Amino acid sequence: MSIKRARLIYGATYMAETINMDLFWLVRMPLPDPHFFLEFARENGRWDRFLLVGSLEFTRAKLEAKNCQVLNAESYFKKVG
To answer: Cα angle at 45 between 39 and 49, to 5 degrees?
Structure first.
C-alpha cells in the first residue's frame, strides 16, 4: 500500500471549549472528549479513515460513527507503552 497523503485531526465535536467541525463533518457523531481521527489517501484514489476512541466510547462509536473504521485506542497504547 502506498500512501499519497495523510491527515491527523485531534478534537471534540460536542460540548467542549473548542469544537472541531471538520471532525464532526467526517464522523457525524457527537464526541464530548477529544479523539484522534486519521485519514490516508492512497495512490489509487481510495481513502482509509480511522477514529481512535477510548473504551467508554468504543461501542457507541462503532454504532454511530460514519465514513470511518472505529478503533479502540487503549489496545494500541498497551502495545506501544
So the answer is: 20
Q: Domain of 39?
A: 3-80
**Cell numbers placing 27:** 464522523
Cα angle 27-48-37, degrees, rounded to a multiple of 5: 40
DSSP 8-class letter at 43: T
What is the rounded radius of gyration, in angstroms, for the C-alpha atoms of the chain? 13
Which residues 6+ apart lie within 8 Å of 33 measured at CB? 12, 16, 54, 57
What is the average pLDDT across 50-73?
93
Pairing of strands 69-72, 47-53: parallel
Domain count, the chain: 1
Q: pLDDT tens for residues 9-18?
A: 999 988 877 7
